């Protein structure tokens, strides 16, 4: 028989886990915020529970509510924690020198992106000097995984069963918003990416915006993100693709070497400061 103390500990741990799930959910809409109804719908929790957990997150400074539109946003304390973590774990920070070199050498725009569930998110866009640019991708933009060169590079690095799950989840959105990127076409592009080692997007999202991308991996082989280059179609024809591939490969390996120096292949302990803050707020 479980003691009342154990039951209380179990309930507390469950509340913390649920609160962390809500925090992750809201963080995916960092700029736009998220209304309560959407949080309830996507979390699968009932409204009173969501309200209670959101209030706890607000007390911990991890989430805040806009008094005008009533949407929930990432809070100041989350920003502080993220800033502290970025010094050690930040892919963006580790990629900046590579992005600058890519844009200087190619004169085109370069990007670093990461995976967020079934989507890719652009963390940064580094402008090139070529006067005609494509503006299809900007920092903060989200695309279903497989849509765009960096996004496709990340998808191709995943196991087949995970790719199948992602494409099944994203199928309605792909069919509605990206008619040239049917899941069958993305599967074909995944195989091509694995064969060549570089993802290629010949204007499938925007007709005059072409891109090339390459996945960046952690030391244990898991996906960290992707580097990519975008340019107008005339600057990504066959005669230039080999050069761009080699530049991408060199910088992706440079970032991976930096990750290897930073990370140790072991399980990270849970961040006690975050859990402690939530536990205090929930009780």
UniProtKB/TrEMBL annotation:
PROSITE patterns attached to this UniProt entry: HTH_ICLR, ICLR_ED
Key words of the record: DNA-binding, Transcription, Transcription regulation
Record-linked Pfam families: HTH_IclR, IclR_C
Residue span, IclR-ED domain: 77-261
Classification via Gene3D superfamilies: 3.30.450.40, Winged helix-like DNA-binding domain superfamily/Winged helix DNA-binding domain
GO molecular function, one term: DNA binding
Domain HTH iclR-type, residue spans: 13-76
InterPro entries on file: GAF-like_dom_sf, HTH_MetabolicPath_Reg, Tscrpt_reg_IclR_C, Tscrpt_reg_IclR_N, WH-like_DNA-bd_sf, WH_DNA-bd_sf
GO biological process: negative regulation of DNA-templated transcription
Entries under PANTHER family matching the protein: HELIX-TURN-HELIX TRANSCRIPTIONAL REGULATOR, ICLR FAMILY, TRANSCRIPTIONAL REGULATORY PROTEIN
Name of the protein: Transcriptional regulator
